[in-house]
Design brief:
Helix 2 (41-51) crosses helix 4 (135-202), helix 4 (135-202) runs antiparallel to helix 7 and helix 7 packs antiparallel against helix 8. This protein has helices at 29-33, 41-51, 53-74, 135-202, 208-243, 265-275, 277-297, 345-411, 417-452; strands at residues 20-21, 37-39, 79-88, 121-133, 251-254, 303-314, 328-337. The relative contact order is 0.16. The longest helix is centred in the middle third of the chain and has 68 residues, at 135-202. The chain starts with 19 loop residues before the first strand and ends in an 8-residue tail after the last helix. Helix content is 60%, strand content 12%.
Length: 460
C-alpha cells in the first residue's frame, strides 16, 4: 500500500502536524473504557482491506484464478500414476479351478469362463506415465493465464474502489469534527452577542428588538451545533463499520497530510495508460475471448496421446514367476485421434466464441473512451477544487474581519443588529464552505487515483 498512498493537500490554515480529533462524546460506556486508537489514512486503508467483504471476495477470486492457471500448466506435463489392481475372472470349471489344475503347473487357477482378463487370477502393479500433446492443452494454459490477469485486474479495481471509499469516509469524519468546532464557535459567538445586546438594552442604548433578534440567532446556532454533532456521530459510525469488528471502538483521526500541487495532465494520462485496472481487465478479457476461439478451432486438429507402462501384469504378484520367468516389463503406446465428424458441433462452438470475442472488442473500445472521459472529468474537478481552496480560505478571513468590524460598529451605535447577525451567518457559512472545499479536493484526488493507482502529487 505504501506505493499507492494518496498525497493529500491540506488547507493553509490547518497545521501540517498530526492533529488528534477527539472521539465523539456520545460513545457507549464500553467504548469509553477502551483506549482511543489513533487512525491514520494508511491505517484505515489497511484495516478496511481486512474487514471489507467485497474486497475479500475479489482477493479470493484472484487467488482461485491463479491456482487455475497452475492447474492448466500442470496439464501440459506428463502425469504419473502408480497403478495397483487385482482381477478375478470366473474359471471354466467351477470354484477357483484349484481342482482342475495344480498350483505348480497352472498357478492361474484354470481357464477363465468369461474372457475379460488374461487369467482367473491376475495382478497388476505398474507405474504409468501419460502425456497428451495437442493445441487445446496449450491453449487452455494461455486461456487460464488470461483469466488470471482479468481476476488480478478486478482485484485492483476492488482495491482502488475500497481506497476511494475509505478516503471519502475518513475525511468526512475529519471534516464533520471540524464542522462541530465551527458550530461551537458560532454558538459561542451568538451567545456572546446576545449578552452584549442585553447589556445595551439595560443601558438604554438599543431596543428590545435587538435582543430578540440576537436570541433567535443564538437558538438557531444551538440547533446547528446539535445537528453538527449528530452528523459527526453518523460519519464516525460509517467509518467504524468499515474499519473495526466492533463499531463502538474508540478512535481518533490523525490529519497528517502534506501540502503538494497536483501533477500535470500529461503525467496523469501517462500513468493512467499504464496502470488503469479497468483497461487492463478489458484487454485481458479480449485476450481470453480470442483464446477461446482458438480453443474451439483446435477441436478440428488431432491429439497425440503417449503412454508408457512399467511393472507387473501377471498371474503371480511377484517379480519372478514360479518357473523363474521375470514378471517385470514395460509397454508403450502412441495414439493419434483425428476428428472426422461431429455434426457441426465444433463449427457452432467456433461461431459462439467468435461472437463473444467481438463483444469483448466492443467492451474494450468503450472502456478506452470511458477512461478518457473520466480523466477529463476527474482532473477538471480536482483542478477546480484545488484552485478554489485558496479563495475559500480568503473568504473565511474576510468574513471574520467583517464580523469584527460589524461588532465594533454596533457597539458604537453606527449600525443595526441585522448587520451583525448577517456577518455571523456569513462567517459560519464560509467556514463550512471551506471544509466542504477541502473534502471536495480529497474526493477528487481519490477519484483520480481510481484511474491511475499512483500518487498524483508532485513530490519533487
Amino acid at each position: 500500500m505504501a506505493n499507492h498512498a494518496l498525497a493529500i493537500q491540506a488547507p493553509s490554515n490547518v497545521s501540517l502536524k498530526a492533529q488528534a480529533v477527539p472521539a465523539a462524546p456520545n460513545q457507549t460506556s464500553s467504548a469509553q473504557a477502551q483506549p482511543a486508537q489513533l487512525i491514520t489514512l494508511a491505517d484505515a486503508i489497511a484495516s478496511a482491506q481486512k474487514n471489507e467483504p467485497t474486497f475479500a471476495a475479489a482477493a479470493a477470486a484472484a487467488k482461485v484464478a491463479r491456482l487455475d492457471r497452475s492447474i492448466a500448466r500442470s496439464a501440459l506435463l506428463p502425469s504419473v500414476v502408480y497403478h495397483n489392481q487385482y482381477l478375478y475372472t470366473e474359471p471354466a470349471h467351477g470354484g477357483t479351478g484349484s481342482a482342475n489344475a495344480s498350483a505348480t503347473n497352472n498357478p492361474s487357477g484354470g481357464t477363465p469362463r468369461f474372457i475379460a482378463n488374461n487369467a482367473v487370477h491376475e495382478y497388476m502393479s505398474q507405474g504409468i506415465v501419460t502425456e497428451t500433446v495437442g493445441v487445446q492443452q496449450f491453449n487452455a494454459f494461455s486461456h487460464a493465464s488470461a483469466l488470471a490477469a482479468v481476476a488480478d485486474a478486478e482485484l485492483e479495481i476492488a482495491r482502488r474502489g475500497l481506497v476511494s471509499t475509505v478516503v471519502g469516509l475518513y475525511y468526512a469524519a475529519l471534516v464533520a469534527d471540524r464542522k462541530v468546532a465551527v458550530a461551537e464557535r458560532a454558538a459561542s459567538e451568538a451567545a456572546d452577542f446576545t449578552s452584549h445586546t442585553q447589556q445595551r438594552e439595560n443601558a438604554r442604548e438599543s431596543a428590545h428588538a435587538d435582543v430578540i433578534k440576537a436570541q433567535l440567532q443564538q437558538q438557531q446556532r444551538d440547533r446547528d451545533l446539535a445537528n453538527a454533532r449528530l452528523e459527526r456521530e453518523k460519519a464516525r459510525l460509517e467509518l467504524a463499520v468499515l474499519l473495526f469488528p466492533d463499531t463502538h471502538q474508540a478512535f481518533t483521526i490523525a490529519s497528517d497530510t502534506v501540502h503538494a500541487p497536483l501533477a500535470t495532465r500529461d503525467e496523469i494520462e501517462s500513468i493512467a495508460a499504464r496502470n488503469n485496472p479497468e483497461l487492463k481487465s478489458a484487454i485481458a478479457s479480449l485476450r481470453a475471448a480470442s483464446l477461446e476461439v482458438t480453443g474451439a478451432r483446435a477441436a478440428y486438429l488431432p491429439d497425440l496421446g503417449l503412454n508408457f507402462t512399467y511393472g507387473i501384469d501377471s498371474t503371480n504378484f511377484a517379480v519372478h514367476a514360479p518357473d523363474g520367468t521375470r514378471n517385470l516389463g514395460y509397454s508403450a503406446s502412441a495414439t493419434l485421434d483425428i476428428p472426422v465428424w461431429d455434426w457441426f458441433a465444433t463449427h457452432d462452438r467456433v461461431k459462439q466464441k467468435t461472437a463473444q470475442r467481438d463483444s469483448a472488442r466492443v467492451t474494450l473500445s468503450a472502456t478506452q473512451k470511458h477512461l478518457i472521459a473520466q480523466l477529463d472529468e476527474s482532473y477538471n474537478e480536482a483542478t477546480l477544487a484545488r484552485d478554489q481552496m485558496q479563495s475559500l480560505q480568503a473568504s473565511v478571513q474576510t468574513a471574520r474581519e467583517s464580523l469584527r468590524l460589524a461588532r465594533l460598529r454596533y457597539a458604537s451605535g453606527e449600525t443595526t443588529v441585522l448587520e451583525v447577525v448577517d456577518a455571523q451567518s456569513s462567517l459560519t457559512a464560509q467556514e463550512n464552505a471551506n471544509e466542504d472545499g477541502f473534502i471536495r479536493y480529497q474526493t477528487a484526488l481519490a477519484n483520480l487515483q481510481l484511474l491511475t493507482g499512483q500518487s498524483l502529487t508532485d513530490t519533487k
